[in-house]
Every structure is written in C-alpha cells, then in structure tokens.
Amino acid sequence: MDLRAGDSWGMLACLCTVLWHLPAVPALNRTGDPGPGPSIQKTYDLTRYLEHQLRSLAGTYLNYLGPPFNEPDFNPPRLGAESLPRATVNLEVWRSLNDKLRLTQNYEAYSHLLCYLRGLNRQAATAELRRSLAHFCTSLQGLLGSIAGVMAALGYPLPQPLPGTEPAWAPGPAHSDFLQKMDDFWLLKELQTWLWRSAKDFNRLKKKIQPPAAAVTLRLEAHGF
Amino acid sequence: MAFSVVLQKAFLLALLSLRAYQNEVFDEPIQLVPEVQNVSTSSKPQQVNLQWTVPNLAHHQELKMMLQIEISRIKTSNVIQVVNYTTTVKWNQVMHWNWKPDIPLECVKYFLRIRGMVDDDKFLLQSSWSNWSSWQEAHIPVSLEPNTVLVFPEDPLVEEGSNITICSVYGRNQHNVSCYLQEKPIPGEQLDSHVSIFNLNNVVFFRDTGTNFFCNSIDTKLEDGIVLFVSKVLEEPKNFSCETQDFKTLNCIWEPGVDTALAWKQQPPQNYTLFESFSGRRKLCNKSSCDWQITDDSQEIYNFTLIAKNYLRTRSVSVSFHLTHRVYLKAPHNVSLEIINTTKAHMTWKVHSRGNDYTLLCQIELLCEKEVIHEHNVSVHMSGDYLFNDLDPDTEYKASVRCADATHFWKWSNWAEKTFSTPEAAPSEALDVWRIVRSKNGSRIVTLFWKPLSKSRANGKILFYNIVAENQDKPAKSKHCSIPAPASDTQLTLDQSSYKLHITANNSVGMSPETILVLSRESGNQEVVEKRINGTKDGFLISWEPRSRDVISYIVDWCAHSQNQLCDLQWKNLGPNTTSTIISSDAFKPGVRYNFRIFEIPVQGPVYLVEKQTGYTQELAPLESPEVLTSNLTSHSFTLSWQGYASQFQAGFIQGYRVYLKSKEMHCHSGWDKVLLSDNSVCCNYDIKDPKQKIFTVENLRPESDYEFSVRSYTSVGENQNATFMMVTTPDEHSHMLLKTMLPMSLCVLLIMVVCYWKSQWVKETCYPDIPNPSKSSILSPIKYMQNPHLTIMNVKDCIPDVLEVINKAEGTKTLYTGAGKLHAENVTKLPPVPTEKDSCGPVPCIFFENFTYDQLAFDSDSHGHVPGPLKDILCQLGPLTPPKNLLNVLGNSNMKSLTGSPTEETSLIYVSQLASPTCGDKDSLTTNLPRPVHCSEYKMQMAVPPSLASPALSKNSDLSSMILLGKGEPG
C-alpha cells in the first residue's frame, strides 16, 4: 500500500475534523450535565439490593406467620390483597409502556407498598422483626426517592395521590387474622415481584437513555468520514 | 323482726290470693313464665346471649327463681344440654344469660327455651315449673357461595391444654375438603351434607402468632382458614412478699411466671393488680414488683392480694403481715475503724433505726484474705461499736457489719464494709537456722541456711538478717554482717576458734529473738558409721539413739539433690525428747540416694553428729554400667578393673558385680555359671558379691581365642541392662618368645641393610668397580677419599659448555676443585665444538658431566691425554621435544635463573638421581632423535639441580636430561 502526498493531506484534514467535533460527542463530554443515566443505574442497583434484603426479611416473617405460609410452594388465593398494586403485567403491554408511564407505575406501586409495609411493621410482635422491617422500610423509601429523582431528571411530574385513595392499613373487624396473614404473605410476594420487575424496568430504561458505544462511531461517520 | 316477716308473708299471701281470685275470675292460671326478650349471638367470642324477663311479677317485686334452659342443636328435638341456674328476678328487669356453644354458631343452628320456678321462702305456695317459653333460634348466618369453603370460629382464643371444635362450611359444589392444623391433616366429622366439625383436644402452644388451621378443596387450592390462638396457662405468682426499709413505702415483689401475651393484640401480657383489703385500695403493678405507699401511719397490719389476669384466667395470691415484721433495714452507715495498736482495732457504725425504742441486732464479721476469721452479734439502738482483739500485725482486714430488727427478725440488711490494716511489729519468732561447715586452708567455711519466717511470725516485711559471729576465744575478732532480705543463706569464713553465731531477722520495727549456733573447734562432723535405711513412697523413718540428756534439740539434715553439685540443704528441727521422725518430701525421687545426718544440739558444748543414715525411697536397678579397663592380657588370662565406678551415686545400693564372658567354646570353668541372656545368647557368668571389689582376673582362657566380656553392677532390684560386651583376643602362647628373639634380630638385619645400602656405592666402587683398577683400588685409601667430600659434586655453573679442553698436566687437575670447586678456565681443555644441528643446539648445546670416580681414578693414573668416549655424558637438547604439561607448569612458575647461579642455594635445590634419568633408561629413543650417537654412562653421581634450571631459557638452551627429569616431577 503506497501513500501519495495527497493522501497525507487528506488524513490531516480528517484528523482536524475529528478533533473539532470531539467535544460534540456526548459520551466523551464530561463537563456538562451527566443526565439521568447515573441515577437510573443507582436505582437499578438499589432494586437489586432490596431484592436481596427482602429475601432474608421474607424468610423471617413467613416463619413468624407459621405454616403453611412459610412453605415454599404455598400459593393462597389473593382474597384480601386485591388493593395491592399488581406487578404482573402482560409482556406486550409492558414492552409498549413509555418511560413516563413505566416510571409512574413504579412510583405509585412503591408508594402503596411502603404504606402497607409500615402497617406490617406496627403489627409485628417481636422487636427484632420490627427492627428488620423498619430497616427495609427506610431502604424502600430510598428507592422511592430514587425513582422520583429519575422522573425529575427526565422532566416527568410526580403522580399526585388522588384524595380518598390513600391506602390505609386498617384491618377491619371483619378481617380475620388468617386473612391478615394472607395479606402479609401477598404483600411480601408482590413486593418481591415489583422489585424484580423494577430491575427489568430500569435496565430497559438504562439501555434506552445511555446509548451504546457504537453510537459514537455512527456520530463520527455522520460527520463526513 | 319476726313480726314483720310474718306480716310480709301475710301480705304476699293476700296478694297471691287476690291474683288467684282474679285468675279464677278470668279462668287463667297464674304462672311466672320467663319470657325471652331477645337471643343475640356473637362470633368472636362465640357466645349466645339470652335476654328474658318475668312479666307477671308485681310492681317492685323481687323473687328468687330457679331457671331451666334447654338447648337443642340443628333441630329442637335434639336437646344437647339442659342448664339449671338460680337468680333473683325483679320487676321490669331484663335478665341476661350467656352461653358458649361448642360448635360455632356459623355452622349449626341452636334452639333455646326457658322455664322458671319460684324458689323463694317468701313465696308460700307450692311452686312448680312454669311452662316452657317458645323455642328461640340462635345462629349466625353466613353467605356461602357454591364454590367456597368457610372455617369457623374466627380466630379463637383458647388456653393451652383445652379442647376446641372447629367447623367448616362449604358450598354445594364443594364435596371433598381437607383441613389441616399447621401441616397436619385433621380428620373431620360430617355434621350434615355441607358442615364438618373438627375436634381438637389438648391444644398446644406453638407461637404467639397462633396456630394456623386451614382447609383446601379437592384441587388443593386453599379456601379458608383461621388462626387458633393458644395462650399459655396463666401461672400463680410465686414468692409474693412485701417489706419496708423506711416505713414509707412497702415494696412487694413476686415471680410472675410465663408471659401469656399473643401477637396482634389477641391477648396482651397478663396484668397484675395489688389489692389491700383493710384500706380497700387497689394498684395496678408492673410485671414483678409494686411499690405501695404507706399513707396511713396508724395502719400496722396489711392484707395484700395480688391478682394476675389475662383474657382467659385470673390468679391471685394473698399475704398478710404486721408492718414491723417486714422491716428490711438499710445497710449501716458511717462505719469507721480506729487502729489502737498492732493487734487491736475499734469499729463504730450507725444504723437506720426508728428510734431508741427499737432494738436492732447487728452481725459483725472480720475477714482476712477473703476468709471469715471472726464473727460476732451485738444489739444496738442507734449506733454500735466493737473492739477487734488478737489481730495480727501488718495484716489487711475487712470488717463488715449488717443489722436486722432484733424483735421480729425478717431479713439482714446489706453489708457495710470497711478495710483496714494493722501496723508492723517486731518478728515474733527466732529463725530456724542450720549450717554446713567445711574446712579449707586451715579456716572454716560456714554456710548458714535459714528458713524465712512465716507471715504471721514476721509481723512485717523482713528487711535484713543480722549475723554476729562471736569469737569465744578472742572476743575482739568477732564478726558482724547484715544480709539483705530475701536471702536465705550466707557464707562465713572463720578461723578455728570457737564461735557463737547470733542470727536475727529484722523488719522496720525491730528484730526477732536471736538464734544461737555454737561452733566449737571440733566441727561436729565426727566420723560415724553410715547406716542404711529403707525408705518408702511416703518418706524415711529416721530413728537414733540419744547420746546425752542435756539436749536442746535434734536436727536431721539432708540434701534434696544428692547427685547434683547443688545440695539444696534441707533440715528438720526436732524436740529434745525425740528419737525418731519421718522425713517426707515431694522432692524425694525413686532411685536417688539420700544421706541423712542426725545432729544433737546440746545445752552446752558443740554440735554433735549422732548418726548418718542413707537410703532410697525406692531402689532401682543401676542405670549406669561400670567402665571396664582390661590389663595383663596373656594367652590364658586378662584382668578387668572398674575402679572409677561411683557406686554411691547409683539408683540403689550396689550389692555386687556380674562378669559375663562369651566365647566360642562356651565352656564355663568352676565358679562360673552358664546363663542365658535376654538376647538368647548363652554365656558364662561370675558373680562378685563384694561391692567393693572392683578388679577381677579372668583366667583359664585359651590362647588365640576371642572373648567377649561385660561387667554389670546389680542392686536388690536387678542389674543394669544397658551394659555392652567388649571383645578381647588372647595372644598366642609362644608369641612372646618369638617377640623377644625376633625383634632384636630384625633390627640387626635392618641396620645392616641400611648400612649396606648407604655404603653400597663405596662397596661397589671398592669391591666391584665397573672398570677395575686393581693397582689403584681406593679401598686401600679410604681416608684420603673421606678428606675431600666436595669431590663428589661438580658445579654446573663452572662448566664451559662449548669447549672442553683436556690438559695433560696431571698437576693441573689437582687444582681443578679447590675452594668452592670453581673450574678455572686455564684448567679446562678446549675441545672443538661438538657437531650438532644448528637449530636444535644453541651456543651451549651440550654439557657433559664428568664421572668423579672415574675422573679421580683417571687423574690419579695420569692418563688424561685423551678423553675416552664412554667416559663423557653428552646430553644434547632436543629441539622438537615438547615438554610435558606439568613440566610447563613448573616452568611457568619457576624463576628464570641463569646457570651461573650459585649451586649452593640449598633452599631451592632439587635432588635428582642421575640413575633415574630417562635419558639413560630410554637410550634408544634418544639416539634416534639425536643427530649423532651419544653415550651415557651406566650410572651417574647424585647431583643437585637448582629449580632455576627448569626455566624457559633452559627449555631452549639447557640439557635434555634436566628437562625430562623435571617433567617427571618426582625428584629425590
């Protein structure tokens, strides 16, 4: 391969062009606003951490409820837990969710779940269990704050709780202790599903917000290479 | 009173008569029929409440009535229970009656009816049961879907050990329902087509969150469940008691027992209430104690009832007491101690008393090193005091005091403590001192040992020991020394005078009573016979014969380590009337000899050695075998000796020695026994029974035979096992004769041979010369030869190698070797150069060495006119000859010295035997390389060649013979 004089001038011109446009490459621009990427990553990490934390807490709490609630294949009907936000959703529906809706659903779900969880904490009989639940509530509060941060970074407003729809932990007189135990079971189960779903949500969001490295190449190519 | 009762009865009778009259008028009998007002049910707790009245009662009338309630289940004809009870009914009052159904109200219908009968003395007419009220239904309806299953009662609370019936109701589409308590399936009893009941007997407590009871439909789908809350049985409070410390508050305590609380507020922890019956006051307490304020000072007697209660049960326990009988005083205060002297201290304290009218009992304890050494009780009112006597000086004590009500003892108060120390006092006991006396260079070395005073005798910290050696003969020569503590021995060097030693121990306050030891001129180490004793594991029993009556004490001493240099002297001081003692020590070891000496300390006079005793706690077989030396070895005997064997340091008393002898013949002579050794070898054994005999001659041996012997010592336990056999070989019977004759003969022959060899040249020259000259045989003139020793050596440096002149003058040769043997030029016959190859032979190509013997003869014969060929050794340097390696090395290292160097450099001479010259030995090879034949002499004179000859210059220019000889590297 032989290079002519014209080629060297061309290469120099290319290099200058690249250097001129280098500050415009978002991935390399560290001086500006980092965007929602880091906070999405942090939120994702927090969901994974909470998943791990909940695994331990749920084991302890279900043992506290006694059999059959602590049996691995126990799957009671969702009798009194209808008010709990459902994490399960049709895959197509989930895929078609836009970012705002996705984040809003997460925020609303954890707002409700946190409220229920605080009620659970108040009812717990042992001090050790109360300590564990309080710790988890604090962590969950942190997750809620993270989601709110991501939404704010993306410019989405926080959902306002409708008056009268504030969930309350009030087992009425007709609510038997057995049903209450079932509700507790479902609360923990739904929380686990939500954390799993949130990890998927934020992973998807992360990929969407942070373009892969290949995008840099495309951008450079677009500038005349 | 009786009148009024009669009047009341008359009034009632009149009233009822009036009613009867009215009924007759209306043709209806008068009956007090209870009328059910309402039947209410509750699900939690399961209960039926029956409200009823007696409508026919007169205005403000009260009657005592007996009621009968009939309860049917499912249908009215199925009566399951009839309950009778009595109550007082009032006019216009709704009565209540509660009933707990056994099967939950949601699962079955109950029917109740009631009837009554007047059971009142005021009612004079004969009473009978009224008619039944109408049946009343008791049931809790549930809305049941065709596919649902419901379980009842809802979250029941029961006590552990009780029974409960649980029921399940299922819709018409549910047929096969299984129910479980936790994970255990519970068999149900079909009550009707859609109701099953489950009887749980003697329920147990699992957890405070309850036991889950649930039912699954046929497809194992959970349908419904309940939580059965099982409470632990409330226990009666134990050890309930009340007491006061200040007459203001009564503190009541108890042991509460198990906590019966359940989760989710199903049952809070049991509560405790204190009720005082005289005052009627009540107070809610915490779990295990309660403070009751004494509000009325005049109340002296209290009757408390402690009530424990939870949802299921109430327990109570009572206690009644007089306040002054439950006084638990506070600990005494203001405790102080005044140290009076070294043995006395005065303690004072104050008590929390209600006044001088109350007598308190106080207990005083004195502790020393955590042990109670003194205990005393005193009665006090407001304050107390106590004097401690007989205290030890320089000791720390702890004084404690506690008090209680003396009249009605309830409980001791807590201890009030005070620590104090007594001051030091002079040591109270004389030191136990003993000594060892040794003589050395005319003086006595006295080593004094003493036992440190015990703490109780030292009365303080011993600072030093004072020793005064009072010379009895010359008081001016007394010695004084002070040994600082904690030494326990010292050494004094005293002369041979009599001494009185005064030893005291001193602390900061004073000195101990002195111990006096008298050292007379006689050291006290009289020679006495040593007696053997047998010890046991527990020690040695030492007994002795008393020598005199005027004895202060006896002392038995011994060394704790008898085999070591360090004796570690031990002694035991015994009273004057003692004649035996047991010496025991943990330091005694089996197999160690202990020597005991018994001394008598007389009232006057020196210490006297009474007895010496020696023994072992346990004898062992000797551990050490004798080191045997052999001597006097003859063909028939040898002597063994082991004089150095220290029998006194063996592991037991040596009783003798056994000599073992092994030989091939295995024939044992008389006095020897044939024994089988542990290694199954057979040998002869001789037993020497005298332990003092340490020499033994083995006799009757065979000449030229191998013997193995071993000497083993033995004690009463056995012989030492680690002795080894040594080998000895007896010599030949005639060998000594042979030695006596052959040795001188051999020496003589050797001497002759040496002389012959030394003089062989002379002999040969004299007797067998190569060229015999009978007329000039030098054997006839040996003296002449001896006068000129230098004639044997020719100086090489004086040689003129290129030209050899032969002078015919006979007298000229006589001056050839004069002085240092230098060759004068004028005496040398110049010969034409020896024809040699130009390259191989330089300017000094050849050197010839003259055979002195021959020359001398030649000179003597005056026939020097020609030089006969064979008489000259001409050695030529061989040019192409390569020096051997070692030669080159030598050459490299040797100094380059010219041939003109002094031949008398003895320090670096190399003696070369010319006879050994390869030039001569390998004549043919040389001749092949030589340009012309060279004749070598048959023998040559020994000559000295300085190492400088072996120089590179020499390798080029000097003679070949020198090179080759050096190359052999084996000079002289």
UniProtKB/TrEMBL annotation, chain A:
Secretion signal span: 1-27
An annotated Gene Ontology molecular function: cytokine activity
Keyword rRNA-binding: no
Keywords: Cytokine, Glycoprotein, Secreted, Signal
A Pfam family the protein falls into: PRF
Entry GO CC: CNTFR-CLCF1 complex; CRLF-CLCF1 complex; extracellular space
UniProt-listed Gene3D superfamilies: 1.20.1250.10
Keyword Manganese annotated: no
Entries under InterPro entries matching the protein: 4_helix_cytokine-like_core (IPR009079), PRF/CT (IPR010681)
SUPFAM superfamilies in alphabetical order: 4-helical cytokines
Superkingdom of this protein's organism: Eukaryota
GO biological process: B cell differentiation; cell surface receptor signaling pathway via JAK-STAT; negative regulation of neuron apoptotic process; positive regulation of astrocyte differentiation; positive regulation of B cell proliferation; positive regulation of isotype switching to IgE isotypes
Annotated compartments: Secreted
Job description of the protein: In complex with CRLF1, forms a heterodimeric neurotropic cytokine that plays a crucial role during neuronal development. Also stimulates B-cells. Binds to and activates the ILST/gp130 receptor.
Subunit structure: Forms a heteromeric complex with cardiotrophin-like cytokine CRLF1/CLF-1; the CRLF1-CLCF1 complex is a ligand for the ciliary neurotrophic factor receptor/CNTFR. The CRLF1-CLCF1 heterodimer binds SORL1 (via N-terminal ectodomain); within this complex, the interaction is mediated predominantly by the CRLF1 moiety. The tripartite signaling complex formed by CRLF1, CLCF1 and CNTFR also binds SORL1.
Annotated family: Belongs to the IL-6 superfamily.
Protein name per Swiss-Prot or TrEMBL: Cardiotrophin-like cytokine factor 1
From TrEMBL, chain B:
Keyword Mitochondrion: no
One GO cellular component, as annotated: apical plasma membrane
Membrane topology: Single-pass type I membrane protein
Keyword Transmembrane helix: yes
SMART domains: FN3
Protein family according to the UniProt entry: Belongs to the type I cytokine receptor family. Type 2 subfamily.
UniProt xrefs under PANTHER family: INTERLEUKIN-27 RECEPTOR SUBUNIT ALPHA
Protein name: Oncostatin-M-specific receptor subunit beta
Organism field: Nannospalax galili (Northern Israeli blind subterranean mole rat)
